[in-house]
Amino acid sequence: MLEVRDVVTSYGMIQALRGVSLTAREGEVTCILGPNGAGKTTLLYTIAGILRPRSGSITFEGRELAGTSAPDVVGRGISLVPENRLVFPHMTVRENLFAGAYVRLGRDRAGVEADLDAMFARFPILKQRAGQAAGTLSGGEQQMLAVARALMARPRLLMMDEPSLGLAPLVVEQIFQIVQGLNREGITVLLVEQNARLALSIAHHAYLLEQGRIAFHGTPSEVSANEGISRAYLGIKGG
Amino acid sequence: MVDFLQALVDGVMLGATYSLLGLGFTLIFGVLRRLNLAFGPTILVGIYAGSHVGLAWPGALWAVVAATVVAAILCGIYVERCSFRALARQAPVVSMISTFAVWMQLQELVSLFEASRTMPYPSPAWLPALTVGPILLRSDALLMWSGATAIMLALFVLLYRTRFGTAVRAVADSSEAAALMGVNVSIIGAAAFLLASTVGGLAGVLIAQSQQQVTPYFGLWATVKGLTAMLLGGAGSLPGAVAGGVILGVVETQTLWHFGGQWRDLASFALLFLVIALSPRARSEPTL
Amino acid sequence: MSDYAVSLLVRIGVEAFVALSAYLLLVIGRVSFGQQAFFVIGGYAAGIATALYGAPLAVGIMVGAVAAGVAGALLSAVMAPVGGIYFAAGSLAFGELVRVALLSFHYQVPVGADLTGPAGADGFRGVRALFTGGVSATAFMLAVAGLVALTFLAIALLLRSRWGEAMRMVGEDETASASLGVRVRRVAALTMAGAGALAGLGGGLFVHYVTYIEPGHSDVMLGVHSLAYAFIGGLGTPLGPIIGVALDIGLLESFRFLAGYRMIVFGGLVMGLLVVRPRGLLDEVAVHRLSRLVAWGRR
Questions:
Q1: Tens of pLDDT along A85-109?
Q2: What's the whole-model pTM score?
Q3: Is residue C92 part of a domain?
Q4: Which of A143, B194, C227, C287 has its CA 20 to 30 A from that of A213?
Q5: Quick check: C267 and B105 CB within 8 A?
Q6: CA of C29 vs chain B CAs: smallest distance (Å)
């Protein structure tokens, strides 16, 4: 569904991505692991159209994506749940969800309303807080809101940047169960995570990004079988 | 008691125009995070344009209104292109400095085109005055107030009931998040500017027809009033700007009634200082 | 030297003080649209000292500077902790406040046969200490130039000192500075007082040169121009604002064909420069490069 080939992205003189290639297969959860500063967020931002790649190609559903502007990327069916949630702090939960469907508001008002109700059904805690300002929600609730908001655009590919960051373990479990559920309903997920164990537990395929390059990729069992990686990222001694 | 009520009513009516000015500032500051100091001067150019049209075609009030608003919008486009779009990648203060360079230009432009400094501005002659019990509602003040209220209502419908409005409020809240939702942030910024210029031009029409004249001093006057209204309500809040404008209007007219003209302006400056001294936001504002 | 050239140079000198005053505040990260208020306060105070109380010229000008400095210190009680657009708006309001207050300021004292002193909206006329003292215009101009040079040196030295370091830190990031032990409030208050005194010095010099001053001299355009001078000339050195003044009043003013268009041209220059060099002609990078050139040349 998503093919990234030899993408190079730089910040001025610093090359954050030095020729990254990966494939996210339709209907699967693909996760990207790696240490801080490896370029994981840069990769997602490049796909999302917020950053322009220096070179390389990105194809989504057969059509070239690289160089598309951020609003158009959303229009193509890709939504990003950003690293720091980035909810609209002064808007209510309900308004946040509404804003998430921005690309559909012009042509499908009724559908948006229906989706809003569906979202409240899926995330009852959001329904409880529907009229509350999003900035007052707890970290876990904001994460749920950010996911629900991204879903309002009816994406075919959902990208998530470090959803577990700053959240309590129980909340993180909840979030990952939701993501797995979404995937089972047919949404392709591209997940960037530092919590390697959790990510591998729901992923079909994993990539390891180190210093702007893909160092390794394979199925979760292949990853755990690799001694070097499992010691570094999974804290396991031995295979 | 009657005095107090009359002053209160006058203040609310006057305050509506201050609210409009405050809204103009807030639209630009809230969405673009930069202060447009040329806002008052763009309205100044507008009302002088309207004044000229009024002299050339007496009786054609619609032409006067159109000329005022169009001139204000054209100036607004100029500011947006040169001070905001051209400097989008720089720190916010750079845009603000550029806008006061535009202020200089517009101020001189107005003085170049004037034979005399104060010019007349037409106002509709057929307006009735209303009396509600002992309270008199002057016809020009009534027009000012009803016009401003109508514009504010239209603005709020636009901002809270349309897709465009959702985008504007989203960008004002978090432009990063808005971009992720598919909002074209730079187009929304330009649109907010256009909206602010239109609101400003209309505010200019209402104020000028009430005073029945325009002076070059209007640019600074509108800037001080608009900024005060915006900051009174909490910078960047649209409902706050409305409230701020009304509060300012009420404080001014009460001071005028009880203490006389020379204290009126002093009172509005004192109010601004009070807000700055007491507002916690004022202290947490980052230096530029 | 022609009369016109002398008066031009005096004007440049006087406005340089207001520009330097705005510049000092820019160093601590505050944009002030109100320095014209201190200019006028200094002018009124200096005029009162010499015309009403017979103080010698130099003393009168000193009084003006001190009065304006005190006003700056008083204002800082409200404005020192404030930054960003609140400071900009507050300073703008202060400039207007002073102007409006002066419209009602009547203080007349019999001097000789007439009443002299501030007469509200009619202003304050008859400040003749410069001319009755027998000082020639040229001598005055040289004195002004000398004062500007001294002030420039003083500021340059100040900015190199530990104080200047603190000021720049406050300008960069107040929270970080505070966490490193800088007394932010105090730095802001002292800078505001000093900036006020500088503008007031300009005002005192001005009132004696043109012999009158009025509330309208607290003109927002003066404040706006002062800021523009600092930004166009460069934020890297106190020479920047001086160059900015010279550029506008010296260069543009002397082009007669620009007569009614000077502000339009100057405004356009500022706008254009901001696109390519947002920190002015002599920005910090340029100053650094120039000083290295000079150091290399000395070897």
A1: 889 988 899 999 988 888 888 788 8
A2: 0.85
A3: yes
A4: A143
A5: yes
A6: 5
